[in-house]
Design a protein that fits this description.
Blueprint lengths: L9 H9 L2 H8 L7 H18 L10 H4 L2 H15 L24 H18 L4 H42 L2 E3 L7 H6 L15 E3 H6 L5 H29 L8 H8 L10 H16 L7 H16 L3 H4 L2 H20 L2 H12 L5 H21 L23 H31 L6 H16 L3 H4 L2 H9 L33 H24 L9 H25 L4 H4 L11 H17 L3 H11 L5 H18 L4 H9 L16 H4 L12 E2 L3 E2 H10 L4 E5 L7 E6 H14 L8 E3 L15 E2 L4 E2 L4 E3 L4 H11 L3 E6 L2 E7 H11 L11
Parallel strand pairs: 3-5, 7-8, 10-11
Antiparallel strand pairs: 1-2, 4-7, 5-6, 6-9, 11-12
Helix pairs in contact: 1-3, 2-3, 3-5, 7-12, 7-13, 7-15, 7-17, 10-12, 10-19, 11-28, 12-13, 13-15, 15-16, 15-17, 16-17, 16-26, 18-22, 18-23, 18-25, 18-27, 18-28, 19-22, 21-23, 22-23, 23-25, 25-27, 26-27
């Protein structure tokens, strides 16, 4: 096609375009690498259409002399003929599934953002036409808040039901309430009029299995029978849980947070947040926590809340048809999940921001706060623990901490970092062995064996027999005058007349020493068994087991410091703040700091962890010890490896997740990573107006690429745009059904005007509307450090590599991940998904 004569300079036309900001953004930027002359020749018809249809009116310098240009007039007339003839673009009317993504593929964040902007612009313009359209625009604006309200209500309700069911089924392993079998031990004795304060755990309505079956409450036979019933109930719960997961919802296993992080980064995993997954995970979470396995419900509650968010977002087209907007809802749902898991709404918002979210705009922050607030309010209304609190282990301390205690707090931080490193390495090694050996083929048998070992070892020790949440509650508690725990069996001074809230430090009694060695055994058991439990094919959270490990270690350290201060109060470190008869050291505070340190060492959380912990305890004045322990544990753990447990499982499963925390410092270029490389076949491309429908269908069948660059011709390799594989398939399929004359020999073109064809040629197929005219491009000498940053911050699926406008190759997200693994001396083929 001959280039038309230009009666004016390209710079004049450029100046005109700059006056129309909307046109300049949509037309010029996609073609920024081309010369001004090429830019004008390709887009002059689009320029004319934009300038005429601009809602702001024509620019001041726009007059009829522009319409009289030969090139413009000819193309305008051709466009008019196209609009009235058979060659119209049938994609002017949308058809189903355009813009959707296939399973195990990554979304295009820029495209989703652009689509939402166009949708919002259309709604805004229509709202001025009538009252009804204005009301519809208001409903659209408020739909986000409605979704947050529904998520908070459902997440809070499910969390309350789970807490109540776990409380009852955990006690069911030891006995049953005769007056009402659905009552837990505590509820049963609350309703009894024969319960005394000293024996508040004993009442005639609650009977152990030995009392109910053989009418014996003491002796060896009663102990053995209760032991067996405890094991049988635990095995039954675990078997039901793993069977339900395996048969109905395989995605309901695990914590869910690694997959949630991956989904929020833009990856598609169909069914992971579905209704069946929500139902099965809720039911099986109750079963596995009640079985006594070393796991928690906090991580899976984030998965449950995200399932709620996915369900409600599917009811509103604003979110169901836009994967980017849907992920904003899921980020807020994750905050609601942590809010009900810990009773910490502010900590939940910070957890979503710090730990799981990939894209977190300010609007999402507000809506996350609202969802977390509604979820916490709903849980508080249900009051599952019966203490008017959001959590089971709410405590209040009456003694301030002292500067000399920072040293043991930091030591607990070091322990937490070492524990986190040990757990991550051992758990990942075990999970990798499970994936690569026959062990992974028998998930039911593995769960049964681990449950049997756990219950057999746990029952004799009172600190492993009780539920982990009750254990943490007991370890956090301060020893008051009314406490009956072995941990509070101190030798009291009979002449003590102080108030009950200000009991001085006392020498440890026999019960404390017994509790110390029992806690030491429980600590070793918990460390070992948690490594093998996390990652099985059942819902399994890690927050509570990690906190239990830290709480046990912290309580023992706290008792040691307390006794040291009591017996050696004349030492220089105790002389100024721990005098005889004073309440100096709070062992429960050490347990809380140890819990925070171990949880931080495993997950690498910092800010959100500290906020969650002080919301748990209500103690603002203990933020500094918590911060010191959290930061120390992170430093120590990071010295052995930067990955937290969730990032390690993401890499183990091969999810395409680009962590913003990782730094890429290698001096490589885009040309080193792009495909095709030397010795590989040339890049599969589409030409703008010379390929038939059959040619394109053959190319799609012979390759598995997610999309194809579109060039002017194979000789010039000048880049025009990028076409997605899925949309090409759908477009050809719908064109054959809806447009007459489309056959295999039909020419497919991506230009505004059809190519010149012989008179007897079949009707051509115009697919310009599915063409992305602004694919992201980099030059072949762009540093990979920059390319990696671009992929992280823009959420790209792929970028094209060019030189002076000519297409050289393509870099996908998978290529970037492989290159990063290769540079880190890891297996580049560990990235399994697209």
């Amino acid at each position: 096609m001959a280039q038309p004569h230009l009666p004016f300079q390209p710079s004049d036309f450029y100046a005109l375009l700059c006056q129309n900001v909307r046109f300049f953004r949509n037309i010029y930027i996609p073609l920024q690498e081309r010369s001004m002359l090429t830019f004008f020749l390709i887009s002059e018809n689009s320029a004319r259409d934009h300038l005429l249809s601009c809602p702001c009116g024509r620019p001041a310098s726009f007059d009829n002399r522009w319409l009289s240009l030969p090139g413009v007039t000819s193309m305008v007339n051709a466009g008019a003929m196209s609009a009235s003839g058979n060659l119209m673009d049938f994609l002017d009317e949308p058809f189903p599934d355009v813009g959707t993504y296939e399973d195990f593929h990554t979304i295009d964040w820029l495209r989703e953002k652009s689509r939402d902007t166009d949708r919002h612009r259309k709604i805004t313009s229509k709202s001025k036409e009538s009252i009804w359209e204005f009301i519809k625009s208001l409903l659209d604006a408020w739909s986000g808040w409605v979704v947050m309200l529904l998520i908070g209500l459902l997440a809070g309700t499910l969390a309350g039901v789970i807490d109540l069911a776990v409380d009852w089924m955990t006690d069911l392993k030891e006995g049953v309430c005769l007056s009402a079998f659905w009552y837990s031990h505590e509820q049963c004795c609350w309703t009894s009029n024969e319960t005394t304060f000293e024996d508040r755990d004993k009442c005639p309505q609650w009977q152990k299995w030995s009392e109910l079956l053989v009418n014996q409450s003491e002796g060896a036979s009663a102990y053995i029978l209760n032991y067996l019933m405890y094991i049988l109930w635990a095995l039954l719960f675990a078997f039901l849980a793993v069977s339900l997961v395996r048969v109905f919802a395989p995605y309901a296993c695990g914590s869910g947070i690694p997959e949630i992080k991956t989904i929020l980064s833009g990856f598609i995993i169909r069914g992971y947040l579905g209704k069946w997954t929500l139902l099965i995970k809720t039911v099986t979470l109750v079963l596995v926590v009640s079985s006594g396995l070393s796991l928690g419900k906090e991580g899976p509650l984030v998965h449950v809340a995200c399932c709620c968010g996915n369900f409600f977002s599917s009811l509103f087209s604003k979110y169901s048809k836009n994967e980017g907007k849907r992920r904003e809802v899921l980020s807020a749902a994750a905050a609601a999940g942590v809010s009900v898991a810990f009773g910490a709404p502010i900590g939940g918002v910070l957890f979503s921001l710090e730990e799981v979210s990939y894209y977190f705009p300010l609007k999402t922050l507000w809506r996350s706060f609202f969802a977390a607030l509604v979820a916490a309010f709903t849980l508080r209304s249900i009051n599952p623990f019966g203490n008017s609190r959001l959590v089971l282990f709410y405590v209040e301390y009456h003694t301030p901490w002292y500067m000399a205690e920072l040293f043991p707090f930091i030591l607990l931080g070091v322990f937490g970092g070492l524990w986190g490193t040990l757990f991550i390495r051992c758990n990942i090694a075990w999970c990798r062995r499970r994936k690569t050996t026959k062990l992974g083929k028998y998930p039911v048998l593995e769960v049964i064996v681990v449950t049997a070992i756990t219950t057999i070892i746990a029952y004799p020790n009172p600190y492993t027999r009780q539920s982990t949440s009750e254990l943490i509650s007991e370890l956090f508690n301060d020893c008051g005058a009314l406490e009956s725990s072995q941990l509070c069996d101190y030798i009291n001074d009979p002449n003590m007349t102080r108030p009950v809230d200000d009991i001085p430090d006392r020498p440890a009694g026999l019960g404390v020493y017994t509790a110390m060695w029992q806690l030491a055994l429980a600590l070793v058991f918990k460390i070992v068994i948690t490594i093998f439990t996390f990652g099985m094919k059942i819902p399994s959270g890690l927050f509570i087991p990690s906190m239990a490990v830290g709480a046990m270690a912290g309580r023992m350290v706290g008792i040691g410091v307390e006794q040291l201060a009591y017996h050696h109060h004349d030492w220089i470190i105790f002389r100024n703040w721990c005098r005889p008869g004073a309440d100096c050291v709070t062992p429960g505070l050490y347990a809380m700091v140890g819990a925070a340190a171990c949880l931080g060492g495993v997950t690498r959380m910092t800010v959100s962890l500290v906020v969650i912990m002080f919301e748990l305890t209500g103690g603002l004045e203990y933020i500094v010890p918590l911060m010191a322990a959290a930061v120390t544990s992170k430093w120590v753990a990071d010295a052995f490896g930067k990955e937290g447990i969730y990032e390690a499982h993401i890499h183990l499963n091969g999810y395409p997740f680009l962590d913003v925390k990782d730094e890429f410092t290698h001096r490589t270029l885009a040309t080193d990573v792009m495909r095709p490389r030397r010795g590989e076949p040339p890049l599969s491309v589409l030409t703008q107006d010379s390929m038939t429908v059959e040619d394109v269908e053959t190319l799609i069948k012979e390759t598995d690429y997610n999309g194809f660059p579109v060039v002017v011709s194979r000789d010039s390799e000048r880049l025009i745009g990028f076409a997605q594989r899925r949309e090409l398939i759908l477009a050809i399929k719908n064109a054959r059904q809806r447009q007459e004359g489309i056959v295999s020999n039909s020419i497919m073109y991506f230009t505004e005007e059809p190519p010149e064809l012989p008179a007897n040629s079949p009707h051509p197929l115009k697919l310009r509307r599915i063409l992305n005219l602004s694919p992201f491009t980099v030059t072949d000498h762009t540093p990979m450090e920059t390319v990696v940053d671009i992929f992280r911050k823009l959420g790209l699926r792929q970028c094209l590599v060019t030189r002076s406008g000519r297409l050289l190759g393509i870099i996908t997200k998978k290529d970037v991940l492989r290159h990063m693994a290769q540079m880190a001396n890891q297996d580049p083929e560990s990235i399994m998904f697209n």
